[in-house]
Structures are given as structure tokens and as C-alpha cells.
Design brief:
- The chain is an all-alpha fold and 403 residues long.
- It has 23 helices and no strands.
- Helix content is 75%, strand content 0%.
- Helix 19 runs antiparallel to helix 20.
- The protein is elongated.
- The N and C termini lie far apart (106 Å).
- This is Tetratricopeptide repeat protein.
- InterPro entries: TPR-like_helical_dom_sf.
- It comes from Salinicola corii.
């Protein structure tokens, strides 16, 4: 029984021999029909090397064919045609030996020879393209493969190869254009991996509707929706990410507590914070989210981003009352002060003191300003004195202004 390595090598050899379009058994007459007639001794040499190649003597063929091609350089039309065939032989031998870049160069040299028939030149263009891709020369290979597809019409296999190459280069626009051509004949026969590749290409191109249309049965997979939204977010389109996540939630796929919180965060980042706040308020009310500090803070942040003053202050107050933390009362005071909500500022600072939280010089300054705005001069003076004692320089100016 042959080893798996031997099987793979033989399979690869068959692929190379067929793909290269060699002058196979009885193929020399075909070569003669394609180009200028060859001398009998030249035909025998080509047949001999071809037999060696089929027998697996790659190194010998690579050396002999290269030497023969070199000797024929600059000859007449028949010599040039023979030289091209010798280059094809040595390129095929090198490809079988995994010398892909060298083989690609030799196919390129062969197809540039004057007088090579167009059909053979086109075949060698395809082989050079595939070898350059296999050699890691991805951009050059992709460009050559594009050229071959445009000239020959190509096929689905070649177009998928081109999509993969363009995707690996992050050339998403070109990859999506190739996908568009593939979609013209329908997507029913696409494999799961092909659909995944296509969806990724369209997502990276910013064509999220096209990407989602390709999900098929995968539309019930939470990871697919998360990945789609994540790519939109990475592309800097948080609004689109929120829309995708919202679609997944409405479909009943993204329904965990973490999913709900993430949807709210995406709405805040994507410029629709009021939508986030409405969702959160509903989820807290119906119990889909726990009424804990993290969720209350997220609700408060959503209303604040939406600049809904009353709702934001109410949410921050609910958070501070639940946690009893001085820092939450301070945050409420800062927000109320920034919006000119003077009574709310005083109430928050009063609750800060009652909670036993540390009252800073700035806190006393805010209390004094809020009280002054409400014309509560005695309260303001006492607050400014406390602020001055804490080292706040502005406090004396406020005291002076009160007279």
C-alpha cells in the first residue's frame, strides 16, 4: 500500500501535468499543428523529456529542458516554438518540485516568445497566475489571474480563487466585484465556507445588506450576527453595527443579557442613544435585565447621551440611591450643574453629605454657585467659606460678589 505522502505526490503530479497542458501521449502532432513544424530530432527530444517527466524524473527534465531552451534562443520560428515547449517542460518539472516561483518565471518567459499560439499563451498565463499565488506572490498572481479571467471568461473555480486572493490582500472592493459575477449565476450551490468567505468580503466592503443576504441558515447563529456587527464597528460604522445587532435581536437570535447590553452600547456609540435608553427602560421594567448598578448606570449614560435632562437626572438619582456611593451622588451633582439644574445640584450634594461620602472643595464650590443662582445667599456664603477653607481660589471671588 502506498503511503499518504506518495499518494499526495502522485496526485499533485497528475494535477500539474494536466493543468500545464503538456504535449501528452500522442501530443507532439498537436504541438506541430499549433505552431511551426518541428524537426524529427526535436520531436524525439521533446518526447523523451516528456516520458522522463511522467516517470517522475523532475530534476533531470528541469535541467535538460532548460539547457535545450537556452540553446534555441534567437532561432527561427520553429526554434522559437520548440523553445517555448522546452520552457513549458522545465516549468512543469519545477512546479512538481515545488519550485513555484521559478516555474512561474519560466511560464512567463514561454508566453512572451514571438509566434506562440494565442490559445497556448492564454493557458500559460493561467498557470503562471496559479503558481505565483502558490509561491506567495499574491498580488502579482491575483493580477495575472484577473487578466486571464477577463480574456478567457474563466470559471467559478478560478473566480473563487481570485476572491480568496483579493481578500488575503485586503483588496475588498476587487474581491466584492468578483463575487458579484459569481452571484449572477445564483448562490444555491455555494458551500458553507464559500458563503462565509463571501459574507466576510461584503462586510469588509461595507455592503452589509449583501452580506446578511448570504447568511442563509446561518441567520440563526448568534456568532454570525455578532461577527457582522463587529466588522461594521471595526470599520468605524457604529450606526450600522447597531442596526445589524438590532436586526439580530428582533429575529430572536441575540437575546442574552450580554446581547441586550451590547445592543444598548452600540446604539449609544452609533448616535441613537435615545433608542438605547428606551430599550433599557423596557428591559429593566419587564425583568429581562436586572435592576443592578451596572444596568442603571448604562441607562443613565444613555439618557445623558440623548441629552434628555429629566430622564438622565432621574436615572442617575436612581443609581445613586441604589448604590449609596458618594461618587454617584457627585456625578449626579456635576451633571445637574452642567445643565444649570440648580436645585438638583443642591439635592445631590446634600445626599452626598448624608451618605457619608467625602465632600471636596469643588463640591462646596458647586453648592455655593447653585445656591447663589437660587438666591439662597446664606447657604451660598457658607458653602463658599467651606470651599475657601479647602483651598479653592475661586471661592473668595464668589464671596466678594455676594457682598
Amino acid at each position: 500500500m502506498m503511503s499518504s505522502t506518495t499518494v499526495r505526490r502522485l496526485g499533485k503530479r497528475c494535477l500539474v501535468l494536466v493543468a500545464a497542458g503538456l504535449i501528452g501521449f500522442g501530443g507532439v502532432p498537436l504541438a506541430q499543428a499549433e505552431g511551426p513544424g518541428l524537426r524529427p530530432d526535436m520531436i524525439r527530444t521533446l518526447q523523451s523529456m516528456q516520458s522522463q517527466l511522467e516517470a517522475g524524473d523532475d530534476a533531470a527534465v528541469a535541467s535538460r529542458a532548460a539547457a535545450s531552451a537556452s540553446r534555441l534562443e534567437g532561432g527561427n520560428a520553429a526554434d522559437r516554438w520548440a523553445r517555448a515547449l522546452f520552457l513549458q517542460l522545465t516549468a512543469t518539472a519545477n512546479a512538481s518540485r515545488d519550485n513555484d516561483a521559478v516555474a512561474a518565471d519560466q511560464f512567463a518567459e514561454a508566453r512572451r516568445i514571438d509566434g506562440v499560439p494565442d490559445a497556448r499563451r492564454l493557458s500559460w498565463l493561467q498557470q503562471e497566475a496559479r503558481l505565483r499565488l502558490r509561491a506567495g506572490q499574491t498580488r502579482q498572481g491575483a493580477d495575472l489571474l484577473t487578466d486571464w479571467i477577463e480574456r478567457s471568461g474563466g470559471g467559478d473555480a478560478s473566480r473563487w480563487l481570485l476572491v480568496q486572493a483579493r481578500a488575503s490582500l485586503d483588496d475588498w472592493s476587487a474581491a466584492s466585484q468578483s463575487l458579484d459575477r459569481l452571484r449572477e449565476s445564483g448562490t444555491e450551490g455555494w458551500s458553507s465556507s464559500q458563503r462565509q468567505l463571501a459574507s466576510t468580503v461584503y462586510q469588509q466592503s461595507g455592503r452589509f445588506d449583501d452580506a446578511l443576504a448570504l447568511l442563509g441558515n446561518d441567520q440563526d447563529s448568534p456568532d454570525v450576527w455578532r461577527r457582522a456587527a463587529g466588522l461594521a464597528q471595526q470599520a468605524g460604522d457604529s450606526g450600522r453595527a447597531a442596526a445589524i445587532w438590532e436586526s439580530g435581536w428582533r429575529r430572536g437570535v441575540l437575546v442574552t443579557k450580554d446581547d441586550l447590553r451590547q445592543l444598548a452600547k452600540l446604539h449609544i456609540a452609533g448616535g441613537t442613544p435615545a433608542r438605547a435608553a428606551e430599550h433599557l427602560a423596557q428591559w429593566l421594567e419587564d425583568g429581562r435585565l436586572e435592576t443592578n448598578a451596572d444596568n442603571l448606570k448604562l441607562l443613565a449614560q444613555a439618557w445623558m447621551a440623548a441629552r434628555s435632562h429629566d430622564e438622565a437626572l432621574s436615572a442617575w438619582r436612581a443609581l445613586a440611591e441604589r448604590t449609596g456611593r458618594g461618587q454617584d451622588w457627585q456625578q449626579l451633582a456635576e451633571i445637574a450643574y452642567g445643565w444649570g439644574e440648580w436645585q438638583a445640584t443642591l439635592d445631590a450634594l446634600s445626599s452626598l453629605r448624608q451618605s457619608g461620602g467625602e465632600v471636596s472643595g469643588r463640591d462646596w464650590l458647586l453648592q455655593g454657585i447653585a445656591a447663589a443662582q437660587l438666591d439662597r445667599r446664606d447657604v451660598a456664603r457658607e458653602a463658599f467659606r467651606q470651599a475657601r477653607a479647602a483651598g479653592v481660589e475661586q471661592a473668595q471671588q464668589w464671596l466678594d460678589s455676594l457682598g
